Amino acid sequence: LSSLSLSLSLLSLSLSPSLFSLSLSLADGADGADEPAVRVSDSNRMFTLASLRAVWHGHKLDFFKTARVGAAAPNSEVVPLAEHKRARILDYARGRRPLILNFGSCS
């Protein structure tokens, strides 16, 4: 806040708390911030059943992941295009050399 808007805010606080909140909201919008001001109507979406379901679904997906940081890599099943028979990723590892997987694009 600039010193002028800060002094106006302090003056409006001494006059009325509602004017203080109005002057703060006007001062916040005047600096050209990219984010819109939080409105009262936005708060009704925070703790809905749909938002809680989305959070629960995310936690459930994290729990059932097979890859974990610091743990052994999963040995997933793959199908090489040339052979059309199933194999495991670690079947292609040789000795102590690192196995590098390149997930490229077809475009």
Automatic annotation (TrEMBL):
GO molecular function terms listed in the Swiss-Prot or TrEMBL record: thyroxine 5'-deiodinase activity
Range of residues in the leader sequence: 1-32
Keywords from the UniProt entry: Oxidoreductase, Selenocysteine, Signal, Thyroid hormones biosynthesis
Chain coiled-coil ranges: none
Source organism superkingdom: Eukaryota
Purpose: Responsible for the deiodination of T4 (3,5,3',5'-tetraiodothyronine).
Family stated for the protein in its record: Belongs to the iodothyronine deiodinase family.
Name this protein carries in UniProt: Iodothyronine deiodinase
